[in-house]
TrEMBL record:
One of its GO terms (molecular function) is hydrolase activity. Residues 1-20 are annotated as: Disordered. The keyword Ligase does not apply. Keywords: Hydrolase, Membrane, Transmembrane, Transmembrane helix. It holds the Pfam family Rce1-like. The keyword Transcription does not apply. This is CPBP family intramembrane glutamic endopeptidase.
Amino acid sequence: MTQAPRSAAHSAAPTDSNASARPTVPLIWAIAALVVAVVLALTFPAWERSVPFGVELAASYGLTWLPLIIALIATALFWRQYLGFRPVDIYLGLMVGVVARAVGIIVQFFVTGSLPSSGIFIGGITGVYVFTAVIAPVILAPLIEEPFFRGLLQGSLGRFLTPWTSLIITSVIFTLVHTIADGWSWTLVVEMLVYALLAGYVVQQTKRIASAIIGHAAFNGLATLINWPW
């Protein structure tokens, strides 16, 4: 009579611990998603002008984010350990976003003598502008990229490497991916790397991605304010 319940418990338990039982699985998903996203981003310019603008706009975000979303869904049992929120995360996130953006402004000013440009579509305040200037960078990007980079990638690397090594590797990859997607410039490299290191460090210390999500939103939101057609 005791054997059946024990077997049932044994068969049910691994469902919630598959990620921890096989530590390489989350990392494999993260690497695969990054490879697919980078390949799609590199091939996008070859055909972007041959499709309608609406398709081009959706593809410019979807091709990069869809592989990350799929990886996050597949590894949810792993990275959900970084979910959670405390009021201090608001302060930490704002600090990360403001400091990283300030660094970008300073670097841009001394290199070119002008304020930094976030690459946001400049024009009339239309639905497309609101999406590209506010919804995509300030809302969607933090909710997709932070769970992936700071939760899945940095967390899975941390199973095999020291915390600082996983933080630095994740930050460099984050910077390279954004350089590929947004175009290379010294300002972009510096501000992205500074942001990624700060966000990664806060997540490393708190074990929560809430501060990184808030920081990402603040970082991009400040760029939107700078470039807003007042």
